[in-house]
User: What shape does this take?
Amino acid sequence: MDNFDFHVTTDIRFGKDRLAELPEVLNQFGKNILLVYGGGSIKKIGLYDRVIDQLKANDNHVFELAGVEPNPRVETVRRGAEICRKEQVDVVLAVGGGSTIDCGKVVAAATKFEGDAWDLVLQRRNYQGDALPLVTILTLAATGSEMNSGAVITNFTTHQKLGTGSKVMLPKVSFLDPQNTFSVNTYQTAAGSADIMSHLIENYFKRTEGTDVQDSISEGLMRSVIKNCPIALKQPEDYDARANLMWASTLALNGLTGNGKAGAWSCHPMEHELSAFYDITHGVGLAILTPRWMEYVLNDDTVDKFASFAWNVWNVEEKVPMLAARIGIQKLYDYFKACGIPMTLPEVGITDEKFDEMAKQAVAHSKIKTDAFVPLDEAAVKEIYTDCL
Ligand code: NZQ
Ligand code: ZN
Assistant: This one.
């Protein structure tokens, strides 16, 4: 196991009906609030009104950044930072899924940044500046953004979807009420669960030896998602299913399963290009790519990890490692399909037209070619895209 720091200071307020705690939380930072939200789902479920009631009773001055897009855009970040500077906002309150929270993070930092918001994103993980404090209310179990310091922002003019982040973007407080996810439709529930699975898989398939703790936690979280996503799909208001998905999303990407393990991710860099060029749902892109990536990198050198995945996550009984590995991959594919996820690229409107360009960008924007579980060059990435047709 490699050396690591684990200092994730987000104050998690998990559970039912805890919004009465919001004023006390916000008052630590000031009275001027930027309320950030997406395309309206929080209004439909009554959460917007409940938040506004708390803010009114607390004499907050509320400014709004509404309409954050899934795959949030840099133009929206710029708009938010302008409001924060003009209105002297003290704290950003992001209410929504990963896109809204990511947008809130970069707005919080861009407000304190002298240059253009895209130049901040281009600093990737090296941003050294300050940020406004961020509080979040999560409404979709998927990204883990509620308890990590990363954000992903898209520039559709240049077809770039890039991860950025810094310690100062870590949410100060996150409210995790599973009831706020009852209204998430089957497509987004399945996509969110695929994203959680992918975060666990990306961290699981690494080369560092002796990481039993991280790997056992990952296996347990994967089993929890595999069990609870189908329940949430059938009974959207099953509290425990939603609660387990929500807590799994948070723990899958807060450092718990990835720290102490070196190496770069594989499917996320490939997926980010699909979203950058075609604006598809992140979790769906990952579900399509992951089993194909697994088939591509399975060989005599990698088989042990895949066999562990099959035995410990899917309870595969086959004892021969290579056969077990193949069954495990098939089970993952079948599981995504059974959750209703379209499992080919043409089903989400993607053809081979831009594979060369996307493969080039996937390699240029990440360390997939040098540090991945199995290093992949442009030709390899293109082959994996082709296997998804
Ligand atoms: O915009 P609204 O109206 O809120 O609707 C959203 C959106 O259409 C809807 N939704 C959210 N909560 C809902 C709801 N609908 C009904 N009821 C609710 N309670 O769901 C749709 C998708 O929302 P979005 O926030 O885009 O989804 P998600 O949480 O999956 O976030 C995806 C974004 O996060 C990035 C992805 O690349 C993508 O841009 N990621 C962020 C990461 C991070 N910060 O650590 C890591 C991830 O790997 C990922 O890359
Ligand atoms: Zn993801």
Summary: The two ends are 38 Å apart (CA to CA). The longest helix spans residues 212-234.
